[in-house]
Specification:
- The chain has 298 residues and is mainly α.
- The protein has 11 helices and 2 strands, in the order ααααααααββααα.
- It has helices at residues 9-42, 46-49, 54-65, 71-104, 112-127, 135-145, 149-177, 184-211, 229-259, 266-269, 280-283, and strands at residues 217-218, 225-226.
- A two-stranded antiparallel sheet has the order 1-2.
- A hairpin with a 6-residue loop joins strand 1 (217-218) and strand 2 (225-226).
- Helix 6 crosses helix 9 (229-259).
- The protein is globular.
């Protein structure tokens, strides 16, 4: 994080949650009002007017905008929104990639600009496949499989490791280190969501993903085009990549510790390293007086 060590992340989390929900509700009014307008203009039912996918943004909405009063103004506002939304998403994705690379290879932290440029160029060349004549099919395949069940597995794993392995008590200690005092009611709320509601919700959604699975298809043809089996396998391979890193990472860490002569018992493997913790000296932040120590893992 680029925030100060004692930044009130509790307040930020509450604000972001409410702003995110409010934005979604507002976007729903905008989207469905435009679709309703298009259905009335065409004299059709809403399901017959438009289907989901990239055509909704680049074909249907621009067509609806041209039928509104002062279409030039609405066109500028609409495409400005699309550009800023795309840039905002790319900032987040690029920062995630560059931060992960520099965390894995600390010697690159003094070359952040070069890492960002290389990451951007790599993404650019990979994205060229979606600018070809059949690029829309590649786009839809990636959209169908890239953010699918694999991300849910990563989320479930992260929640379980953080709350049940690292321990909720250690999390509350870390929050106290940041000089954030949580109300008792909020502690019970976080415990309930972390340990019960969030894992169960993610597992339920994951099961629904497999139960309701249908092969990827494209709606950018006169008739619905279902991708062939070889392309479906490519999509499944794409989804498996994050899961493979989870499966391979554990034995690699085990053999790495064993080769370095470190303990490889279960408790040692599931305990934070000696370097874990806030970098008080590096960040110029003084250690709060009476700071609690991490408790033993659950």
């Amino acid at each position: 994080s680029y925030n100060r060590f004692n930044n009130n992340c509790y307040r930020d989390a509450i604000l972001i949650a409410f702003i995110n929900c409010a934005t979604s509700i507002f976007a729903g009014f905008v989207v469905f009002s435009i679709i309703g307008f298009m259905a009335k203009q065409a004299g059709l039912e809403i399901p017959d007017v438009i289907q989901g996918g990239p055509g909704l943004v680049f074909i249907a909405y621009p067509e609806a905008v041209t039928q509104m009063p002062v279409p030039q103004l609405w066109s500028i506002l609409f495409f400005s929104m699309i550009i800023t939304l795309g840039l905002d998403s790319m900032f987040t994705l690029t920062e995630t990639i560059t931060t992960a690379i520099m965390d894995q290879f600390p010697m690159l932290r003094n070359h952040k600009g070069k890492v960002a440029i290389c990451s951007g160029l790599t993404g650019f060349f990979l994205g060229l496949t979606m600018c070809t004549k059949g690029g829309i099919f590649m786009f839809e395949l990636i959209d169908w499989y890239a953010a699918a069940w694999s991300l849910l597995i990563c989320g479930i794993t992260e929640v379980i490791i953080t709350v049940y392995v690292y321990g909720h008590r250690n999390i509350f200690v870390n929050i106290q280190e940041m000089e954030i005092n949580l109300p008792k009611a909020m502690k019970y709320y976080f415990l309930t969501t972390w340990k019960v509601l969030t894992p169960l919700s993610l597992i339920f959604i994951l099961l629904l993903k497999f139960v309701d699975y249908i092969p990827a298809y494209s709606t950018n043809t006169q008739e619905k085009y279902v991708f062939p089996d070889a392309v479906q396998c490519l999509g499944w391979a794409m989804s498996l990549v994050p899961v493979v890193f989870l499966i391979v990472g554990a034995p690699l860490e085990y053999y790495k510790r064993k080769s370095e002569g470190k303990s490889t018992d279960m408790l040692s493997l599931l305990s934070p390293s000696d370097e874990w913790g806030p970098s008080f000296v590096k960040n110029g932040v003084k250690k709060p007086a009476g700071q609690p120590e991490l408790v033993e893992l659950l």
